[in-house]
Amino acid sequence: MNALRIVRIGFVINLRMLGTSGFFLLTSTIQPVIFATVAFYMFKSGGRSGTLLYAALGAGMMGVWSTTLFGSGGMIQWQRWQGTLELGVGAPPPMALVYLPFTLANAFTGMYALAATLVWGRIVFGVPLHFVHPWLFLLALPASVVALGLMGLVLASTFVLYRYANALSNLLEYPVWIASGLVFSTQVLPAWTRPISWVLPPYWGILALRHAALGGEVWGPLAMLTLLSIASLAISTLTFGLFEHLARARATLSLT
Amino acid sequence: MIEAIELRRTYRTTTGVIRRRPLDVEAVRGVSFCVERGELFGLLGPNGAGKTTTIKMLITLLLPTSGQARVLGCDVVENAREVRKRIGYVFGGDRGLYERLSAYDNLRYFAELYGVSGQKQRARIDEVLELVGLAGREKERVEGYSRGMRQRLHIARGILHDPEVVFLDEPTIGVDPVGARGLRQTIADLVAAGKTVLLTTHYMFEADALCDRIAVIAKGEIVGEGTPAELKARVVEGRVTEIEVFGADQVTVERVRALEGVTAVAVENRDQKQILVVQATGERELTAPILAVLNGVEVVRVSSREPTLEDAYVALVGGE
Ligand SMILES: Nc1ncnc2c1ncn2[C@@H]1O[C@H](COP(=O)(O)OP(=O)(O)OP(=O)(O)O)[C@@H](O)[C@H]1O
Ligand SMILES: [Mg+2]
Questions:
Q1: CA atoms within 13 A on the CB side of B21
Q2: How many angstroms does the Cα of residue B49 sit away from the middle of ligand 1?
């Protein structure tokens, strides 16, 4: 299938480009160390229920969300700056398909960040890496990452029209951490925030990962991740189509 | 093949830092033209005339403010997808490539986007690399490419999927003379192979050598259209006389302009010297009358020649 080929090559060349960026390699080495450290001290000072692994997973997921959030918007900005955004728009496939592999590659590096956080937690702070459902964990991990990547695709589409959409995405980092229960349990949040949590892939992602690692129901969160993935894909197809049209009207595809 | 009907495009920008007022820039104001199959059509005009804007509307990257355009029979607004599949386009300049990838990976990626896949892909990429003279350098990252090499890679990318219609916006900008000649040959070969090409350039000899037909656009409007020979004939009948002088003042220039048969006088300053380019109608020999009014001015050299496309262009867009 043509679409699969486009996703595959887009994914491969993206990792290749990321791999040649020294800055990217540096940040992705340091970031997990920071997240692991944060997780450890949060856990120690909090003295709440849960285990060290519980906190480490939360911290890792924070990393995945940050990578996805800044990576997907930054990707469109960078394409515009490089002059390749017009080429992506001018190519025959729908924009959502052209940029899907870019956000997936991003989320994939986020997955690496999560894994690295766990490994650092193990090495430096002795976080036990014992999983109750190891196989389900290996399923939940990519499911979370894909769901986040597709949500990133929806965010990326806004950057097609608005050259300065970072203002929006900068606002989304901490609130999503909190509403998804990455920092502390969403039980402490007011009830009206519940529906917000339910539409956030990180909420179901961390639930799936924690339940797979520490015991609990995994299939429910997995089903929600799948549902949100499909919804994101559908929404991004619409928003890319709409924003592309508006960007062609307002001439925001190129810098000049 | 390419059909533009009363195309218009207005950009809305803002002016002023503190009190922002909207400002409309009318970049293209009712441009109409037609390019037939297999034709090489040139769009010439000064900076900011609206050439790139016109091309971007035709290749579906900008929506026209009003008017219509069809490429290969497909409307560029209603049927953008179909247009995109069947055209290729190249912008001049450094940007528009994936810097951190090799030339080969750039091409492989775009080949996939344009549905050139499987077994054909490798052969086709090798073919276009050979065509633009980049064979052997394709494994290097684009970051390290010179301007001319980037330009060649742009062209390779634009023709990768063997499109029927190709849009080239200043394709030879920044390419060395020998390289530019090679690229012109490549463009001529495209047309020989039956492709339809729309080209913009600031090099008049290039347009003269390549184009079957030319439209000159100034301030968003077409001010002249025809074959290079027609344009030359229409605008400058007869001959062009060039006189190299020292110290001709405005009054002297006006006296030349007032001579019978003189249609235009352009003055080019070079160091202390000036070159008066005098266009005249008819076959009358003007050298003697001109020298007569230049009385007192030191004349270095006088020559008379056939009009060039540049003369026609300057006359159309109005000198300075
Ligand atoms: N995105 C934009 N926003 C606002 N004004 C624009 C934009 N793009 C072009 N313009 C304006 O539209 C006019 C036409 O520009 P265009 O780029 O089409 O000219 P051009 O003929 O291609 O010039 P050049 O020979 O310099 O490439 C110019 O006045 C330019 O400043
Ligand atoms: Mg231009």
A1: 4
A2: 7
HSE at residue A33, side-chain half, CA atoms within 13 A, is: 6
Given CB atoms, is B59 within the 8 Å cutoff of chain A? yes
| All structural domains of chain B | 2-232 (3.40.50.300), 236-317 (3.30.70.1340)
Residue A241 maps to a domain: yes
Mean pLDDT of all residues in A155-159: 91
Nearest CA in chain B to A22: B100
Residue A61 CB contacts under 8 Å (≥ 6 apart), including other chains: A114, A144, A180, A182, A202, A205, A206, A209
Specify the pTM. Answer: 0.87
Cβ contact B61–A84 (<8 Å): no
At B306, give phi and psi (nearest 5°): -70, 150
Evaluate whether residue A256 is within a structural domain. no
Residue A255 lies in a domain: no
Does residue A194 form part of some domain?
yes
From edge to edge, which strands make up the β-sheet containing B221-226? Answer: B87-91, B165-169, B196-200, B40-44, B213-218, B221-226
What is the span of the domain harbouring residue A153?
2-250
Q: How far is the CA of B20 from the centre of ligand 2 (A)?
A: 27
Say yes or no to pLDDT of B251 above 60.
yes
Q: What digits encode the pLDDT tens for the residues A174-214?
A: 888 888 888 777 888 888 888 999 999 999 999 999 999 98
CB contact under 8 Å between B84 and A92, yes or no, is yes
User: Is A83 in contact with B91 (Cβ distance < 8 A)?
Assistant: yes
Q: Tally the domains of chain A.
A: 1
